[in-house]
Design goal:
Order of helices and strands of chain B: EEEHEHEHEEHEHEE
Order of helices and strands of chain A: HHHEEH
Oligomer: heterodimer
Number of helices of chain A: 4
Shape of chain B: globular
Strand order of the largest sheet of chain A: 1-2
Helix content of chain A: 40-55%
Strand order of the largest sheet of chain B: 5-4-3-6-7
CATH class of chain A: Mainly Alpha
Strand content of chain B: 15-25%
Structural class of chain A: mainly alpha
CATH topology of chain A: Arc Repressor Mutant, subunit A
Largest sheet of chain B: 5 strands, mixed
Number of domains of chain A: 1
Radius of gyration of chain B: 21 Å
Number of strands of chain B: 10
Chain lengths: 71, 217
């Protein structure tokens, strides 16, 4: 996975995404806050949701408690 | 036992039709074509990692990447190599040439994406992808396709020019003449009725004849 190292720790880009989503935000918000291209944001969001670090909210996405603990 | 041979017919991409969706392992994680919605995408294939022409091309693509980003264009490479081979090659290019490869590369070991896009030309090689370039617009529509043989490296300035031409066409509803470069006059679409042709001749265009009129952008 691009976001999660084999030992379970998160990559720097994954941490940047989680940090940007301490409060709810959209894909565009994350792209703006992290300076990552949109495709990379979408890849990261998908992986972090699958691993339980993020959850989808009405307006976009937010870090879960498990995600906050990683920041 | 029947000797019947079952052949799967794969429909290749065509211009102005949706590019086929895929999900693939890349050097930047698992990427779907739909992840690029809202951006232009240049999906390109190369024959193999650690080969000379491909190395020069990768450095060429990296060189024009900032210009592409200004135009809302992303790059996505592909070859029939493993992700480990891609990582090693990308690191090797950085070590030997000081060029960072900023875009992801698909590890298409089972040729799923290559088959979907018709990147393997059996007359050239059955194990490598040819030098294909697919330009996909922000709505996922295939807008241009270029194929180069294994022996000929691509012209990065032509790829930039193609993007500029496509974007100018979309923005201004014009066409571009041979060898057009940004700043040159563009072609006004030919009139479709005699009345429109007469109007065109009186208009503020540079017309050689009613069917060939140019204007500034």
């Amino acid at each position: 996975m691009a976001c999660i190292n084999p030992d379970g720790t998160l990559t720097p880009s994954a941490k940047k995404v989680l940090f940007a989503l301490r409060t709810p935000g959209t894909q565009s918000d994350v792209a703006d806050l992290t300076s990552m291209p949109m495709y990379r944001v979408r890849v990261s969001l998908r992986e972090l949701i699958e691993a339980g670090f993020l959850e989808e909210k009405n307006v976009g996405y937010k870090a879960t408690e498990k995600g906050i603990a990683q920041i | 036992m029947s000797d019947e041979v079952v052949q799967e017919v794969v429909r290749l991409p065509r211009l102005n039709e949706p590019a086929p969706e895929f999900e693939a392992v890349t050097t930047h994680g698992v990427i779907r074509l739909s992840d690029y919605e809202g951006s232009w995408l240049i999906l390109f294939s190369h024959p193999a990692d650690f080969t000379p022409v491909c190395t020069t091309e990768f450095m060429g693509f990296a060189e024009i990447y900032p210009e592409l980003q200004k135009r809302n264009v992303e790059l996505l490479g592909l070859s029939v190599d493993s992700v480990y081979s891609h990582i090693a090659w990308v690191r090797n290019i950085e070590q030997n040439f000081g060029v960072e490869i900023p875009f992801p590369v698909i590890a298409d070991l089972n040729k799923d994406v290559a088959t979907l896009f018709g990147m393997v030309m059996p007359g050239e090689s059955t194990t490598e992808t040819s030098r294909c370039v697919f330009v996909i617009d922000p709505k996922g529509i295939m807008r241009a396709m270029i194929y180069y043989p294994l022996t000929t490296g691509r012209n990065m300035q032509e790829i930039l020019r193609l993007i500029d031409a496509l974007q100018a066409t979309d923005e201004h509803q014009i066409a571009t003449p041979a060898n057009w470069q940004p700043g040159d006059k563009v072609i006004v679409p030919p009139p479709k009725t005699t009345e429109m042709a007469e109007e065109r001749a009186k208009g503020d265009y540079e017309c050689v004849d009613w069917y060939l009129c140019k204007r500034d952008l």
